[in-house]
Predict the structure.
Amino acid sequence: MTRLILAIAIATLTTVTLTSAALAANEWFFNPSNGDVVEGPVGSPQNYINLGPQPSAAAAQAAARSLQKVQGTIQSIQGSTATLKTDDGKTLSFDAAQLGTPGRAKVGDRATVMAASSGATTDTAASSGPDWFFNPDNGDVVRGPVGSPQAYINLGPQPSPAAAQAAARAVQRVTGTVVSSQGTTVTFRADDGRTLALDASQMPARSLSDFKAGERLTVLGFDGRTNNQFVPRYALKATGPAPAQSRGATTRGAEWYYNPLNGDVVQGPVGSPQSYVNLGRHRNAAAAQAAAKASQQVRGQVQSADGSGITVKTDDGRLLTVDTARLDQRARGRLAAGQMVTLYGRYVTDANTFRPSFVREDGGSALPRLR
């Protein structure tokens, strides 16, 4: 059976012809294969998703993050319109003409689709459940609608209270100091020594006034598409001064490793790297410990696997998209549908996308990973 990766938009969106001559200077494009977001025109438009005109790079990044990756099987093709039965039971329609390769998609093909959701499915019942909300001030996780939505983080549709609780636990906290702010782009110095680029485009407009140079904040949200990017959804005033940094520490520091089996955080190199999560370079032990605490654990069953990643049905009932790019080829090759796994890593962009740097089979043996 053929497996396709389709970079398209769902049919209810405006179709744009991808020819270099027709591109406006302020149109932006997203390359799903490497995560690049670039201003057009582009040399190989068929390899990109056209995000349309965007007022800034930050807005284009936000548009790229709004794209969803769904996997499933093509059910029918009528003219240029194809229907896809997704692995979680939804039926989506898309315009196959936007692929630029007529006749490539066939009934029965397995497909991974990058698409902007139109919210339309042929299912009469909401398959993913109602919206749930998390209040960081008191830890409440409640089913919406809520009376004061500005006091909550919207966790999106969740199938059960347990899934909503898990989504709330996936929200990450980073405390630090605002270095500078321009529009929705904020430079943030975290207390663990990292310098983060905050994409605050998903924050309420009134909250942007909190991002002033010198302001101490705790931001709640998710990792972005790059290592030093963070997407805040909520901000709290932080108490106390920033911790003093060691004078002897270098900006980059040495590589540190975390062993999920016994909780050790050690400076590399390590003798058995496949038994550790590589935390990257940190300036001191405290920063490495903070990175280890941010490394999260998810257990579940693999539902499907292809070259771009896997989907996992977690023990709490969520369907998780897992980016396996940081695992080496041997590890990816051993991940198959039906396998029980434990993933160690971080949530990316939202609570339904996970990027592991370490994977264990349910029996406990470590899969090899890329250093």
